[in-house]
C-alpha cells in the first residue's frame, strides 16, 4: 500500500505559510491603524462663531470644517448660545471627546454641568 506524502507536506506547508502571512497582515494593519489614530486628531482646532442671534462654534481638522454648531444642541428650541464663553465651553467638551475617539454628542446633563443657559 502506498501513502500519499505530498498532500500531507502540502497541507503542512500551506498552513504554516498561511498562518505566517495572516499574522504579518494583522501586525501591519494594526500598525497602520495606530499611525492613523495618532495623526487623525492632530490638527483639531476650535473657533467661536458670531452669528445674528448669538454665538456658536466651529471645529476644524487641518483647516477643514468638521462641525459647525450655531445652535445649542439637545434643547428643543433652535436657540444660539448667549455668549462666546458658553459656546466655547461646549466646543471644548466636543473637542475633548473627539480627541478621546468617543462620540462627540452632547447631552442635557453636559449642558447642566457646564452651566449653559438654555
Explain what you see.
InterPro entries: DUF4907. Keywords: Membrane, Transmembrane, Transmembrane helix. By secondary structure, this protein is an alpha+beta fold. The chain has 2 domains: 1-40; 44-113, no CATH class. 49% of the residues lie in helices and 19% in strands. The protein has 3 helices and 3 strands. The protein has helices spanning 5-40, 84-99, 108-113, and strands at 44-51, 54-61, 64-69. A 3-stranded antiparallel beta sheet has the order 1-2-3, with helices on one face. A hairpin with a 2-residue loop joins strand 1 (44-51) and strand 2 (54-61). It is elongated, with a radius of gyration of 26 Å. It starts with a helix and ends in a 5-residue tail after the last helix. The relative contact order is 0.12. The model has no long low-confidence stretch (mean pLDDT 79).
Summary keywords:
118 residues, alpha+beta, 2 domains, 3 helices, 19% strand, elongated
Broad shape: elongated
Q: Supply the helix-strand structural class.
A: alpha+beta
How far apart the termini lie comes to: 88 Å
Annotation, overall tally of beta strands: 3
What summary fits the major beta sheet?
3 strands, antiparallel
SS element count, helices: 3
Instruction: Pick out the low-confidence regions.
Output: none
Strand content: 15-25%
- Number of folding domains? 2
Question: What strand line-up does the widest sheet have?
Answer: 1-2-3
Average residue-wise pLDDT:
79
Amino acid at each position: 500500500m502506498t501513502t500519499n506524502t505530498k498532500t500531507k507536506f502540502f497541507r503542512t506547508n500551506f498552513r504554516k505559510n498561511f498562518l505566517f502571512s495572516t499574522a504579518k497582515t494583522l501586525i501591519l494593519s494594526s500598525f497602520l491603524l495606530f499611525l492613523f489614530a495618532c495623526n487623525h486628531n492632530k490638527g483639531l482646532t476650535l473657533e467661536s462663531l458670531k452669528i445674528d442671534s448669538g454665538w456658536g462654534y466651529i471645529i476644524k481638522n487641518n483647516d477643514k470644517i468638521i462641525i459647525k454648531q450655531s445652535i445649542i444642541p439637545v434643547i428643543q428650541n433652535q436657540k444660539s448660545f448667549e455668549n462666546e464663553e458658553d459656546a466655547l465651553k461646549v466646543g471644548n467638551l466636543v473637542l475633548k471627546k473627539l480627541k478621546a475617539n468617543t462620540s462627540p454628542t452632547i447631552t442635557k446633563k453636559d449642558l447642566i454641568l457646564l452651566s449653559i443657559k438654555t
